[in-house]
Specification:
By secondary structure, the chain is α/β, with parallel strands linked by helices. It has helices at residues 10-21, 39-51, 65-71, 92-102, 123-134, 154-157, 170-181, 185-194, 199-207, 210-223, 229-240, 247-266, 279-285, 291-309, 314-330; strands at 28-32, 78-81, 111-115, 140-146, 161-164. The chain binds zinc ion (ZN).
Length: 333
């Protein structure tokens, strides 16, 4: 990974390149911001540039021994520490491993150690790591990746240079998806828009069956007015409640879809649409709704999202939301 290949994050790049130029690389840094915005990639680009045997100005060469090792994941001194499973924490044993590693001199020029999702460190691990930052061993660079610095010990934060990572503009994510994942433009724009500025999230959605499910969820809303009450209840019980774990995605999809219909009805500005690939369906059915109905439905969905976050009964929330959407679509039609 080279600096020029990283999308967005111009500010982070220029801070880092500036400090390399001035030969004042901080020994500990905090990369903060939502995940999937290039924190690990920049850490790797930094490790590459610092160790490259033949850097060209602000770029690593990409072909020397160390660059190649970094690119293939075989450079021994680019170390990423993270929690082993989604629910586990970064343990003190993992920090002890770091102590062991830094007791040897770096293999090349610099060792770069990334603590990924550092907010997952146990208290013990965090305290032990703090001691490392208090007396940082030479030619070792520590990078803590974190969503929000407030989730770390203030004593850790104060020892790091904080570099902020911003959500990546959706047109840049879309462009990247078209180029690197050979997606058609409309699908790329859709994924980019719902990714919230995170390439990681866009990729996750692409690799899951989200796109297929989204079409099912939207098509359900489109067909809703045709359903009898019996059919509605059967869809709820046999289809939606089976996908309980997807409830936030279902609600977000419905919200984005109703918002799209509102946009197309009120402004006809297709560039503002989220589900761009399904514009033709939105066009066809926009006449079914009054503006106020759409606004109400969108706010119902937002309420449902809040209710789920407050741990309300998922089945009940889903049932009430579906019923209110059903009623809206049937009224006066
Ligand atoms: Zn190189």
């Amino acid at each position: 990974m080279r600096f020029s290949e990283i999308i967005g994050q111009e500010r982070a790049k220029s801070i880092l390149l500036g400090s390399i130029k001035a030969n004042r690389i901080p020994h500990s840094m905090l990369f903060s911001g939502i995940s999937g915005t290039g924190k690990k990639s920049i850490a790797k680009a930094l490790a590459m540039l610092l160790n490259c045997l033949d850097p060209k100005g602000e770029e690593s060469c990409g072909v020397c021994k160390y660059c190649k090792q970094l690119l293939s994941g075989n450079f021994p001194d680019f170390i990423i520490i993270s929690n082993k499973t989604k629910l586990s924490k970064i343990s003190i044993d993992q920090i002890r491993e770091v102590y062991k590693r830094v007791s040897f001199s770096p293999y090349a020029k610099y060792r770069v150690i990334v603590i990924d999702q550092a907010e997952n460190m146990t208290e013990e691990a965090a305290n032990s790591f703090l001691k490392l930052l208090e007396e940082p061993p030479d030619r070792n660079i520590f990078i803590l990746n974190v969503k929000e610095p407030m989730d770390l010990l203030p004593t850790i934060v104060s020892r790091c240079q904080n570099i902020k990572f911003y959500p990546i503009p959706s047109d840049k994510i879309a462009e990247w998806l078209v180029k690197n994942k050979s997606l058609d433009k409309d699908t790329a724009i859709f994924l980019a828009k719902i990714s919230g500025g995170s390439i990681g999230r866009a990729l996750e959605l692409l690799e899951s069956d989200y796109l297929k499910k989204r079409e099912e969820w939207i098509s359900l809303l489109v067909k809703l007015p045709l359903f009898s009450m019996n059919r509605l209840i059967s869809v709820l019980e046999n289809q939606l409640l089976e996908q309980k774990e997807d409830i936030m995605d279902i609600l977000a999809t419905w919200g984005s879809w109703l918002r799209d219909i509102l946009v197309i009805k009120e402004t006809d500005e297709k560039a503002l649409l989220i589900n761009r690939d399904l514009t033709y369906i939105a066009e066809k059915i926009k006449g079914r709704y009054e503006t106020e109905e759409l606004l109400n439905a969108i706010s119902n969905i937002q309420e449902a999202e809040k209710a789920i976050q407050k741990n309300r009964n998922v089945g009940l929330v889903l049932r009430n939301t579906l019923m209110s959407l059903y009623k809206m679509q049937r009224e006066g039609k």
